[in-house]
Specification:
Elements (H helix, E strand, L loop, with lengths): L6 E5 L3 H26 L3 H23 L5 E5 L4 E3 L2 E11 L2 E8 L5 E8 L5 H11 L21
Antiparallel strand pairs: 1-2, 2-3, 3-4, 4-5, 5-6
Helix pairs in contact: 1-2
Length: about 160
């Protein structure tokens, strides 16, 4: 099987991903506050103040995890993936047809990871090229040719 051809894309992160992360963070903050309030038997005003702060903090933390809302440059040179200029592995974690959740892992940066959520519109050729490159196996390393020495000639 042939490896995927090189590609370079400017992708916008998915707004739905950012909203989902904020919603999950806010829900977690509210649930934790409700659990603590139930065990400590807080009065209603204290519960409302603390739950509002926890929901806002959870939403902020969720948006922070989702990453910045800026263009992401994805490159595949035929051998390595580059995300915003830094080389690393790029793996598909979730694939919902036109929405992809990717995980970038940099082995040289001691396990530094980055989540990237991308969405595409129907009929986008960049989408097909990216999916082809993501799902094709990486090229096999070419073995070095053995050094062959010419046979010694015997003199007559």
């Amino acid at each position: 099987m042939r490896p995927a051809p090189p590609l370079a894309l400017q992708c916008a992160p998915s707004r739905a991903w950012r909203l989902a992360c904020a919603f999950i963070g806010a829900s977690a903050g509210g649930a934790i506050t409700a659990w603590v309030a139930g065990h400590l038997e807080w009065a209603l005003p204290a519960f409302l103040v603390f739950s509002g702060a926890a929901i806002a903090g959870g939403a902020w933390f969720g948006r922070r995890i989702a990453g910045p809302l800026r263009q992401v440059e994805v490159r595949w040179d035929g051998r390595d993936w580059q995300l915003d200029g830094s080389t690393g592995e790029l793996r598909v974690m979730l694939d919902f047809d036109r929405w992809l959740l990717l995980l970038r892992h940099q082995p040289k940066a001691r396990g530094r990871v980055r989540w990237v959520a991308l969405s595409f519109v129907r009929g986008d050729d960049d989408f097909r090229a990216l999916r082809t490159a993501l799902y094709c196996p990486p090229p096999e390393p070419t073995p070095d040719l053995p050094h062959v020495r010419a046979p010694d000639r015997a003199t007559d």
